[in-house]
User: Fold this.
Amino acid sequence: QVQLVESGGGSVQAGGSLRLSCAASGRTFRHYSMGWFRQAPGQEREVVAAINWIGGSTYYADSVKGRFTISRDNAKNTLSLQMNSLKPEDTAVYYCAARIAPDGTYLATVGDEYVYWGRGTQVTVSS
Assistant:
């Protein structure tokens, strides 16, 4: 089992920045692919960004490319999402997710691939 706890959400004006963090605990000695997802009220969950175990491959949704950066520190079992130039449409609950990967290069980009989920952190961007 892997437990994930997000932090760093909050309220910010458009154009501002926030940094989300996800702390992983439990069976973290195995390779796993991780990602950030978000869900706005009345909308389906969508992938924001994903990263493989070795950190060499990343994926970003088109809506956040050039503004968000995903990173991980395997020694500290943490995942981060740096969000710059935030827009009101970025308002959502952001979730950290993880899945055991067949190897360190595997990159999961679809929500259904993920097994472990955090409880989420609210991000609100005002205009």
Observations:
- The chain is about 0% helix and 50% strand.
- The chain has a mean pLDDT of 94.
- The CA atoms of residues 33 and 108 lie 6 Å apart.
- The first strand starts at residue 2 and ends at 7.
